[in-house]
Every structure is written in structure tokens, then in C-alpha cells.
Amino acid sequence: TTHSLVPWPCHNSGKYPLNTRVLMLPVSRVKNRSIAARARPFRTSQKGNPVDLGSIFLAELVGTAVLILLGCGVVANVVLKGTKGNGGGWLLLNFGWGFAVFIGVLSAAASGGHLNPAVTLGLAANNLVNGEPIDGGEIGLRILAQLIGAILGAVVTWLAYKLHFDDEPDPASK
Q1: Per-residue pLDDT averaged across 66-93, rounded?
Q2: Is residue 7 a contact partner of residue 29, using CB atoms and an 8 Å limit?
Q3: Which of 27, 31, 35, 33 is nearest to 6 (CA)?
Q4: Rounded CA gap, 113 and 159, in Å?
Q5: Closest by alpha carbon to 101, among 141, 83, 139, 74?
Q6: 13-37: per-residue pLDDT in tens?
Q7: Could you give the 3-state DSSP secondary structure of residue 5?
Q8: pLDDT of 141
Q9: What span, in angstroms and rounded, lies between the C-alpha atoms of 68 and 63?
Q10: CA-to-CA distance for 14 and 11, rounded, in angstroms?
Q11: Most buried by CB count within 10 Å: which residue of 7, 8, 48, 153?
């Protein structure tokens, strides 16, 4: 009979880091099936460690919130009167947004750092075209976390610059 094989810590097969020992055991020999199911997680981090949906949600939420907070914060700082960066110009905006994207992706590295529903949907479409499985629940969870994170980042930016927004005479700058 053919059995599906499950990685089991024992010896190194070259697929895992050198300090990890793995033995392939038939699933029928594993007494607890939940251990067999956890042995090959569908979601893995960049280092190959399993990542649960809660970690993905939190990483996407924090990463997107940081991205919007820093990115919109630099725009508010350059555009609003009375701020120290007023009139800083396009170079300050570019460096600010570049830094915002870098820190946002770094904050969400545990989940892959999508930070944008377009990236999430694009990667899902790529997996679909290549015949790889996609998880609709994970896609929806990522997009929900990104939307909530963007709203939180925008609200915190607005609160940080509220007095400057109130004093701004030009309604187009608000």
C-alpha cells in the first residue's frame, strides 16, 4: 500500500536547515492525525515557520496602519501651514513615502507584507493561474486587516495634525 509521508524531526534531508533533523514517516504510523496535519502547514513565513491567521491579520493591520500613518503624516507635514515641514517640496514627500513603505513592509514581514488589496488579489490570481491552491478566507482576512489598518492609520494621522487641519485656511489643503 502507498502511504503519504509526513516530515518528522529525526534526520536532515537537505530540505530543512542544517540544525533540523527530519524523518519522513507514513501518516498511518502517526497516532495523532492533528500532528500530521500540522507537520506541513499551508501558510509559512519566509523562514518556513508556520504562520496562523491571527498573526497574518495582526501583521497586515499593523503594517498598513504604519504605512498610512507615516505616508499621510509626511503629506500633512508638507502641505499644512504651521508645521515644521511646510513647503518641504516633492523630495521630502518622496523620501517620506519611501520610508513609510519600507517600515510598513518591515512591520508586516511575518505575513509577507502585502499591505495593499491589489497586491493580495494579484498574488491570489497568480496562484490561481499557476494551478496552486488559494484560500479565500485568508485573502478576505488580509483585505479586511488592510482596510482596518488603513482607517486606523488615517485616523491617527488626522488626530496628530488636527489643530493644523483646523487652522488651515485653504479648504483644498484639508
Answers
A1: 93
A2: no
A3: 27
A4: 26
A5: 74
A6: 555 455 444 444 444 444 444 443 4
A7: strand
A8: 94
A9: 9
A10: 9
A11: 153
Residue environment code for 111-121, b if the CB has 16+ CB neighbours within 10 A, otherwise e: bbbbbbbeebe
- Grid coordinates given for 107: 512591520
How many C-beta atoms surround the C-beta of residue 49 within 10 A? 10
Per the model's pLDDT, the better-predicted residue between 59 and 33 turns out to be 59
CA nearest to 23, candidates 44, 7, 39: 7
Handedness of CA 132, 137, 140, 141 (dihedral sign): negative
* H helical segments located in 51-135: 53-79, 90-107, 117-129
CA 6 to chain centre: 29
